Amino acid sequence: MNTDVVISGGGPVGLMLACELRLRNVNVLVVERLAEPDRTIKAGSVSLTTAEAFYRRGLLPAVDAVVQQNAEQIKAFLKSRGGGGPKAAMPVGHFAGIMVASTGVHFDDPDFRDVGPASRLVVIQQQAVEAILGERAAELGAEIRRGVELTGFDADDGGVTVRLGDGGTVHAGWLVGCDGGRSFVRKNAGFAFPGTDPAITGRQALAELTGVEALPGGWQHGNGGLYVYGPTPGRMLTVEFDGPPEDRTAPITAQELEESFRRVSGADIRVTKVHSATRFTDNARQAATYRQGRVLLAGDAAHVHSPFGGQGLNLGIGDAVNLGWKLAATIQGWAPDGLLDTYTTERHPIGEWVLEWTRAQVALMRSDVRTKALRRVVAELLHTDDGATHLAKKLSGVLHRYPIDGEHDLTGRGAPDFAFADGTRLGDHLHDGGALLLDLAESAELRETASGWAGRVGTLTVKCVSEPGLTGVLIRPDGYIAWASEDGSVAGLDAALRRWFGEPA
């Protein structure tokens, strides 16, 4: 069998990448060793930038339906525990378990401008994301094989020969490892994976419990660790600073969860049934590069860290959206020199930030007297309006910038969801996964400049009511701005088109 790309790993990152490639008519085979989706409790929310990626690909209705259902469950849970009244403030997130309410956040800050309907797509389980992306990838024509393990591969300048556990062999142009923190692809391709060793044991579960009536909500410090009960029925989490588990892969029993929760909280709780459970640590490592020849990495295969702050899923989806169009352009032969290498250049610094962000949280969660004092100081800062706004920006991803040349302050950032005079928004025009040049001043010069890239860059002539000063914006397929102008000038547009979309046809 021959194909353009083999993706090892059928979780959300691998499926998102498959969707992005299929939008550009690239042949894709996804191989996943698990016969059924993993139901282990994982991420329960996404960031604004991830929600924007789903919205731009037309996934808003499917995602929104799950989000609304989750919101009702959380509301009912809070009400059952005496909270969640009409004036209750939803948190924007937490740092090291320090919850920060949305009431102090300056959502009128320029970094939040024109976030559009994606702002409400937050609370959604990783399993739901995987189901939505799996259905979409199949609709787009990706071949997905479950219960098939990648057992080996040989890569050279001409492509990759992939061996599968069912005895099959696939000849592909490229192999992408989206196969998690213990990535077979990363290890066997020889990627360097430096970082810091784990020092904690975390346990998270969906379970049936008794004796929880008196437990306070939110993150709580206890004896030698932290614990959380909620914000949905049966969700429990503990963090203990006694080193990593002896065997992270061993089955997790109700007794283990119960004993951990009792040690940390001091509460006489009982775990009567476990629906889903997992262990985690603060092992923090990152591949030195995300590409070695014809082999690439994305998601947890490229970077691992503790789950604090919920950045793992978001980081991986960002990888997939950044990589997809660049790999497609390379396969189709029009990519400018070095385009595929910008995947590492742009995504590696964001991965570094996430690792540092999670390491800092672990340090601030410790229970010694000095750390507790520091924690109180940090809490005071986060509970100011400026502190809450800064945290919201960090967690949402709106501060992410790529090193893209250009004079305008929008260059290098994710595109705001511009509102247009015809009643549409920018996200409505990005469902096909292509690049888009906005002609906002009916400029014949702008359209003439871009004419050589027809087929690679679409053009939309429309009035922008949310940013009336803009006259032109070039948006890459991943939603990031490569060029913008406010004075009608097209200076720099030709260079930006050549930099990201090759020579004109």
What's the structural blueprint in terms of helices and strands?
Layout: E1 2-8, H1 12-23, E2 28-32, H2 48-56, H3 60-80, E3 91-95, E4 98-101, H4 126-139, E5 143-146, E6 150-156, E7 159-164, E8 169-177, H5 184-189, E9 195-196, E10 201-210, E11 220-222, E12 225-229, E13 235-240, H6 254-265, E14 270-280, E15 284-286, E16 291-292, E17 295-297, E18 303-304, H7 312-332, H8 342-365, H9 369-382, H10 385-396, E19 435-439, H11 444-450, E20 457-461, E21 472-475, E22 481-485, H12 493-501
Parallel strand pairs: 1-2, 1-8, 2-5, 8-17, 19-20
Antiparallel strand pairs: 3-4, 6-7, 7-8, 9-15, 10-13, 10-14, 11-12, 12-13, 15-18, 16-17, 19-21, 21-22
Residues in helix, %: 25-40%
What fraction of residues sit in β-strands? 15-25%
Spatial separation of the terminal alpha carbons: 32 Å
Give the radius of gyration: 23 Å
What tags apply to this protein structure?
globular, single chain, eight-stranded mixed β-sheet
Question: How would you portray this structure in words?
Answer:
The chain is of the alpha+beta class and 505 residues long. The chain has helices spanning 12-23, 48-56, 60-80, 126-139, 184-189, 254-265, 312-332, 342-365, 369-382, 385-396, 444-450, 493-501, and strands at 2-8, 28-32, 91-95, 98-101, 143-146, 150-156, 159-164, 169-177, 195-196, 201-210, 220-222, 225-229, 235-240, 270-280, 284-286, 291-292, 295-297, 303-304, 435-439, 457-461, 472-475, 481-485. A hairpin with a 4-residue loop joins strand 7 (159-164) and strand 8 (169-177). The longest helix is centred in the C-terminal third of the chain and has 24 residues, at 342-365. The mean pLDDT is 92.
